[in-house]
Amino acid sequence: MGFFQKLSDGIYVIEKWLSIIFTFIMFSSLVAGVVFRYIVNYALQWSDELAIFCLVWITFLGGSIGIKKQETAAVTILSDKLKGTSRRIIISAGLGILTLFTAYVSYLSITWIISPSMKFEKSISMEIPMIYPNLIVPIGMLFITVHSFNLFLISLSGKEEL
């Protein structure tokens, strides 16, 4: 097992735990919002915003998990008809393009996160710096880049069937 395989597996474990935590927080904040609105007669201003931020984190983490487990939607008309080396070349090319794309989006998102304007943005209800909810964009894209690069290396080796 190579370095990128171990890195991808470690990231996958982190993603699973973060997804569980954010799902619990999202569910709890929505339940609290309903309870406070209809039982206590006091609307929580922050519960919906917190749930939205958690949903965004869950979405990026879930997308990365989908890449890792190869359970994302894919058009496989061409690769299904090919066999052997030609199939491996097509799959490797697709994974290479995915890796380059996600690496580029990672670069752009890091540039966006470290921009000076990000320091001054605050969320409306909770008034937290928006850098915290927005951090999932570069984190998620970096995770996807690692997973897709690992799959790219596996496809080049030809040892495992993708």
Spell out the blueprint of helices and strands.
Layout: H1 3-38, H2 47-68, H3 77-81, H4 84-113, H5 131-134, H6 136-157
Helix pairs in contact: 1-2, 1-6, 2-6, 4-6
What does this 3D model show about the protein?
- The chain contains six helices and no strands.
- Helix content is 73%, strand content 0%.
- The model has no long low-confidence stretch (mean pLDDT 93).
- The protein has helices at 3-38, 47-68, 77-81, 84-113, 131-134, 136-157.
- The chain is elongated and about 65 Å long.
- It has one domain (3-157).
- The chain has 162 residues and is mainly α.
Task: Give a brief description.
The chain is mainly alpha-helical and 162 residues long.
Keywords for this entry:
162 residues, mainly alpha, 0% strand
Helicity, as a percent range: over 70%
Oligomer: single chain
Helix segment tally:
6
Structural class: mainly alpha
Gap from first CA to last CA: 16 Å
Envelope shape: elongated
Radius of gyration: 20 Å
Q: Can you tell me the number of structural domains?
A: 1
